[in-house]
Write a structure and sequence with these properties.
With 233 residues, the protein is α+β, with helices and mostly antiparallel strands. The chain has 5 helices and 12 strands. The protein has an 8-stranded antiparallel β-sheet with strand order 1-5-6-7-11-10-9-8, with helices on both faces. Strands 2-3-4-12 form a 4-stranded antiparallel β-sheet. Strand 5 (99-102) and strand 6 (108-111) form a beta hairpin. It is globular, with a radius of gyration of 18 Å.
Length: 233
């Protein structure tokens, strides 16, 4: 469970600090393209069967479903598949049934082809920082990434909570946030860290209407994300 913390009060000093923080971010992170998000289906269309939806998705071809994952699949906990990238030295798990899709600007994306807002994506960019702590505290980093990188300009965003964890001497910032579009609200979780001269961001989420059902699984995705200097075996 992510720990809730109060939102920082907007002030001139903080705005200047935010601008400075954005300049510190790797250029690829500042200009990172958003993972395409489909609008939630209207109520009258929710009567369509799952089989019909799958057929429509395959015909529409909104995403390119990869026949074989570029990230090696491994055995995960019950209900999950594990993804392990030995080249970029990260690993995480994602819910069983999600498929890898091709999205420009991301290292890997897995998503539920039926529920358009349910996905997990990883983006990577180069950095000269040695630790994520050099970008600021968890709340500062969460607010800047949520407002400047992870949310389309046409949507409203709010950070709901932040957390900090350490594994094998590496610091990870986790945060929870929500983005509001005209027709839906996406409830999301993210985790960021630095290693191997790279800035890693994993983001996952779901429609707010399905949050209570998906929350535990999405938390598992974020908690499972780890970066290593080198994988063995």
């Amino acid at each position: 469970m992510l720990q809730s913390r109060p939102t920082l009060t907007a002030s001139n000093a903080q705005q200047l600090k935010a601008a400075a923080f954005k300049q510190q971010l790797p250029r690829a992170v500042r200009s990172c393209p958003q993972v395409p998000r489909c609008q939630a289906a209207p109520e009258e269309s929710q009567q369509v069967s799952r089989r019909q939806v799958m057929q429509l998705c395959s015909i529409a071809g909104a995403f390119t479903i990869l026949p074989q994952s570029a990230v090696a699949a491994a055995k995960g906990p019950p209900g999950f598949n594990a993804a392990k990238d030995t080249q970029d030295s990260y690993q995480f798990v994602y819910p069983f049934g999600w498929q890898e899709v091709s999205v420009d600007g991301t290292d890997v994306v897995y998503k539920d082809i039926i529920e358009p807002l349910e996905s997990a994506s990883v983006t990577i960019s180069k950095t000269d920082k040695a630790s994520v702590t050099e970008f600021g505290n968890p709340l500062e980093v969460a607010q800047q990434l949520t407002n400047e990188v992870l949310t389309p300009r046409s949507q409203q965003a709010k950070v709901l909570g932040v957390n900090k964890r350490e594994i094998d001497g590496r610091t990870y910032y986790e945060f929870e946030f929500a983005t509001k579009a005209n027709t839906y609200i996406r409830h999301a979780l993210a985790v960021v860290t630095v290693g191997n001269g790279k800035f890693y961001t994993l983001t996952t989420g779901s429609n707010e209407n399905r949050w209570s059902k998906m929350k535990e699984r999405l938390v598992e995705v974020v908690k499972s994300f780890q970066v290593s200097e080198r994988f063995t075996g």
